Amino acid sequence: MDTIGFHYIVEAAGCRPEVIGDPERMREILLAGAKVGKMEIRTSYFYRFTPTGVSGVVIVAESHITIHTWPEYRYVALDVYVCGTSSFPEEAIDYILKELGCTYAHVSEIKRGIRDEDVYTHTILTWDEDLKLTQV
Amino acid sequence: MDTIGFHYIVEAAGCRPEVIGDPERMREILLAGAKVGKMEIRTSYFYRFTPTGVSGVVIVAESHITIHTWPEYRYVALDVYVCGTSSFPEEAIDYILKELGCTYAHVSEIKRGIRDEDVYTHTILTWDEDLKLTQV
Fold first, then answer.
1. What are φ and ψ of residue A98, in 5° steps?
2. Which of B61, B83, B111, B133 is least surrounded, with the fewest CB atoms within 10 Å of its CB?
3. Of all helices (H) and strands (E), which one includes residue A123?
C-alpha cells in the first residue's frame, strides 16, 4: 500500500459547549463524519474527562480520526488522517466542524510518508477558515 | 484544563519489518513507550492490515499515541500528542523508535491550542534525526 497520507490538524474555536462536552454526541458526530468522508469504520472509543471535556478516537481502515475537547473554552483539537485516495477527509472535517458549531478553524494539512530515497518526510500547508457566516 | 498541547508527527524510516508487522509486538512497544513517558493509559486498540501493516492507538489521559506501519517499506507514521506538563513525550518517542529499529526520523513538533483572543492556532517546528549510530 502507498505510504502517502493526508493528516489534517485542526484547532477549532467557538464550538458549542453542550455538544463538545457530551461523549455520546461526539461519538455520533465523528462516526457520521467518517461516513460523510467515505471512510470504513473499524472501532471507536470516547470518554469524558473530569470535570469537563471529551477525548475520542475513531479508527478507520484509512487511518484515524481523533478529538479532544475543552467545553469551558469552546475549543476542540481535531485530527483526521487518511491514507489512499478512496476517502474524502475535507468533507468529513467540514461536516464535523459544522456539527460542533465551530466559528473559526486553524488548519494544517500534513502530507505524510513522502519517500526521499530511503527515508520519509512530510510537507505542511497551513490556513485559517472563518466559518461565522456559514453558521446559523 | 489548559488547552496547550504538544503533538509530535513522526515519519520513521528503516524500521524492522518483523516488529512493525506484528500487532501484538506493536501494542507492547507503544504501551511500554507510554509508561516511559509517564502517561496514564486508558485503552488501546491494534489491528493487522491485509496483507501487511498494523494500525494502532493508545488513548492516554494526556491525549493519544497512534501508529500506522508499512513493513514492506520499513516505514512507520507515529503520532504522540500530550496535554499538560506531567508527561515526557520525547522520552516515549525515543523509546518507541529504538524498539522499532528506526534509523532515520523526520519530526514535526506542533504546539497546539495556542489562544489568540477568541481563536486557537498552532505553531510547528520540524527537524530530522539520524539514528543510525545509536542502533545495534
1. -65, -45
2. B133
3. strand A119-130
Domain count for chain B, please give it: 1
- The pTM for the full model equals 0.95
What stretch of H or E contains B25? helix B23-36
CATH of the domain at A85: 3.60.90.10
d(CA B87, CA B8): 13
**Nearest-angstrom CA–CA distance, B23 and A97:** 33
Q: Give the position of cell 519489518.
A: B17
B117's torsion region: left (phi>0), alpha (psi -120 to 50) or beta? left
Is residue A120, in this structure, part of any structural domain at all?
Answer: no
* In chain A, residues 35-64 whose CB comes closer than 8 Å to chain B: 42-43, 45, 47, 49, 53, 55, 57, 59, 63-64
Question: Does A96 reside within a domain?
Answer: yes
pLDDT tens, residue by residue, B71-116:
999 999 999 999 989 999 999 999 999 999 999 999 999 999 999 9
Which one of B55, B77, B113 has the shortest CB-CB distance to A59?
Answer: B55
What CA–CA distance (Å, rounded) separates A43 from A63? 11
This model of the complex carries an ipTM of 0.94
Residue A37 lies in a domain: yes
User: Does residue B14 sit within a domain?
Assistant: yes
